[in-house]
């Protein structure tokens, strides 16, 4: 059950598009995996406040009718939203179930241990997972290679009354190697690596090439009593089983279990759930 103040809703999908409500703003955007037919009539789609497509380049229609920015709540977390030239808004609502799980798991661990768990969030974008962990009572380190995205995440933290998150702008592997040398440890690691990414100094990240090393470095940073490693991906070919296999190897020898599933955009009863990536997580044995 979603929180009463959840302002996100999937309204419909089909023919390679998705229709979503973000607070009072309704948007139509591309979605390659929506290969079925829409359920709502064409006039419901035409009534969207704005639409985005990637035909003939990235292009918004009706962007001028939208506010410069607005705020919504998703899974009890407040987010500052704005349209970008790539069609993103500053939120990935398919992660809502993961945010709830992170917050609940961290909160239970904090209560059981009588101490704040330390959580590292890599490729952290606008901070949904960082905020969930902090709201659960964790000490969070948030890393992204984009200064703009880290600033956006910090604004989201202020919206939620959080001022204890450690903000890092850096290449993920450079940072991880430094943390290993320093002997720093974390009780949990969250990561959502891009299919392809570029750092501020021209570094490149390719998930099929670099993810095994990323996970190996993360394993080196786990504390003596780790809670979890949560991995998600939006890359075609990174199925739940692929992510499970990677985590099983990276966390080999640790007492715990690996599970996986699909991330879904969801709406009211009767609205077809829309797959939007996969997740896998290693969780410690109790």
Characterization of this structure:
With 286 residues, the protein is of the alpha/beta class. It folds into 2 domains: 8-81, Immunoglobulin-like; 94-284, Vaccinia Virus protein VP39 (Rossmann fold, 3-Layer(aba) Sandwich). It is 28% helix and 31% strand. It has helices at residues 42-46, 96-113, 128-135, 147-159, 172-182, 207-220, 240-250; strands at 8-14, 17-22, 25-30, 50-53, 59-61, 70-74, 77-81, 118-122, 139-144, 166-169, 188-191, 196-198, 204-206, 228-233, 256-265, 274-284. The protein has a 7-stranded mixed beta sheet with strand order 10-9-8-11-14-16-15, sandwiched between helices. A 5-stranded mixed beta sheet has the order 1-2-3-4-5, with no helix packed on it. A two-stranded antiparallel ribbon has the order 6-7. The radius of gyration is 19 Å and the shape is globular. The chain starts with 7 loop residues before the first strand and ends with a strand. The relative contact order is 0.12. The model has no long low-confidence stretch (mean pLDDT 95).
């Amino acid at each position: 059950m979603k929180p009463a103040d959840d302002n996100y809703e999937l309204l419909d999908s089909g023919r390679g598009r998705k229709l979503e409500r973000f607070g009072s703003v309704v948007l139509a955007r591309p979605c390659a995996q929506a290969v079925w037919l829409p359920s709502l009539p064409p006039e419901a789609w035409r009534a969207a406040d704005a639409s985005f497509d990637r035909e003939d380049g990235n292009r918004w229609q009706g962007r001028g009718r939208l506010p410069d920015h607005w705020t919504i709540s998703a899974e009890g977390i407040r987010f500052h939203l704005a349209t970008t030239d790539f069609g993103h808004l500053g939120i990935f609502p398919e992660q809502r179930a993961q945010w709830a799980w992170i917050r609940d798991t961290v909160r239970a661990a904090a209560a059981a241990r009588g101490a704040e768990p330390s959580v590292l969030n890599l490729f952290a974008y606008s901070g949904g997972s960082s905020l969930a962990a902090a709201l659960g009572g964790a000490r969070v380190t948030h890393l992204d290679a984009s200064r703009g995205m880290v600033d956006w995440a910090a604004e989201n933290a202020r919206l939620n009354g959080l001022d204890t998150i450690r903000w890092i702008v850096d290449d993920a592997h450079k940072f991880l190697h430094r943390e290993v040398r320093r002997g720093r440890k974390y009780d949990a690691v969250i990561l959502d690596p891009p299919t392809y990414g570029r750092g501020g100094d021209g570094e490149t990240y390719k998930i099929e090439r670099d993810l095994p090393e990323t996970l190996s470095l993360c394993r080196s940073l786990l504390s003596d009593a780790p809670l979890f490693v949560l991995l998600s991906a939006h890359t075609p070919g990174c199925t739940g089983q692929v992510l499970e296999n990677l985590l099983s190897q990276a966390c080999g020898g640790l007492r715990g279990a690996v599970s996986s599933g699909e991330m879904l955009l969801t709406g009211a009863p009767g609205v077809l759930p829309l797959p939007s990536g996969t997740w896998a997580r290693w969780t410690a044995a109790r």
